Amino acid sequence: MESESAETLPEAPESATTDAETEEAQSQDSQEATSNIDATSQESFSDDPSYQSQEFLQRKLYFLLEHLKKMHSSVPEQYQVRISYELLAGLANSLLNDTIFEIVKGLMEIQHVTEKHLMQVREKVENDHQLEVKQWESKIQDPEELEHIIALMKIKHSKNLKETDMKLVLHLDQKVKDQQSTLEKAGVPGFYVTDNPKEIKIQMYLLDFILRLSRTKFEHNK
């Protein structure tokens, strides 16, 4: 019996070795599985639409900001210092929304139509003055009397034209305030209602930047 027991005892180490090899194999399988999961996670993240959208917006933001910086460098120095990098960055961020471009285009179209209409109003006033002079010239035969009447009409017409110009300027000023208010409500940095000529000049530069960018195509695949 002791002899048989001694012969069977050496089998235990062989079993222990087998367990160790099994544990090692399981560990390797676990590591490989973890690596595969990490790789799959990275692939899934890169394919995630939200990730692609963020990358698209980041590239577009850089594109807009770089163009704004170039435009800013061409502005007279006295206005460059008043248009900060923070303002340009904020403007670029707001222009990620293409709606801002459409708003500005619409405002510019309204402004052009308004200016054209006001020019026509002024031209009509001038034409009416000329017509009035011709009517008097056809009625008055006496040169001295006609000269006196024409002198009086020039004074009246000059006053009338100044009043017309004042009305036109006030109308244009109101349109500018309407533009400022619209862009401020749309969240475009640098725009607010003001009568300050220097601030209005800066806003005009910003409007020019926006219009020029609206004609610049962003190719996100590049």
What's the β-strand tally? 0
Helix content estimate = over 70%
Contiguous low-pLDDT stretches (5 residues minimum) are 1-27, 29-48
| Biggest sheet architecture | none
User: How confident overall, as mean pLDDT?
Assistant: 82
Number of helices: 8
Indicate the radius of gyration in whole angstroms.
Answer: 40 Å
Encode the helix/strand succession as letters: HHHHHHHH
Distance between the termini: 85 Å
Condensed summary:
With 222 residues, this protein is mainly alpha-helical. It is 83% helix and 0% strand.
Structure description:
With 222 residues, the protein is an all-alpha fold. The protein is 83% helix and 0% strand. The protein has eight helices and no strands. Helix 3 packs across helix 5 and helix 6 (99-139) runs antiparallel to helix 7 (143-185). The longest helix is centred in the last third of the chain and has 43 residues, at 143-185. The radius of gyration is 40 Å and the shape is elongated. The model is unreliable at 1-27 and 29-48 (pLDDT under 50).
List the helices and strands and how they pair.
Blueprint lengths: L1 H7 L2 H37 L1 H25 L3 H4 L4 H10 L4 H41 L3 H43 L11 H18 L8
List keywords for this structure.
222 residues, mainly alpha, 8 helices
